[in-house]
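Pipeline run #58 for the internal structure catalog. This entry was flagged by the ingest filter as a single-chain record with no existing model, so it goes straight to prediction. Upstream metadata was stripped on purpose; only the residue string is passed forward. Reviewer on rotation: M.T. Logging verbosity set to normal.
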Amino acid sequence: MTTVYDFELPKGYVDSQGTVHRKGKMRLATAGDEIGATRDPRVLSNPSYLTIAVLSKVITEIEGMESVAPNILERFFTADLAFLQDMYQRINNIEPPTMTVVCEGCGNTMQVPINFTREG
């Protein structure tokens, strides 16, 4: 069974020295990856950050970089982030996860799907 997948970013991450990094590896997600990401304080204060938190756990390598931290993923071009979100969906063959949110206006709690592909 394949658990790690190679990828090549459409644009590439440009580091502070101007080097472009395009190739990397993503592994299958575990339940712990998703649970841990939902507990991240950045996700709790901004549910949109879930994408970054999850991807930083499952991207195991980007060529020429020592680590893949959330602050690195924050600087990816949106085309590359969308590519990685789509890849995550495809290799894990899952429905988008949901997150519990509280309506600021009425205080009701509800489950909201998180759509990594940004379609619909």
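catalog note: The chain has one domain: 4-113.
catalog note: The two ends are 32 Å apart (CA to CA).
status: ready for reviewer M.T.
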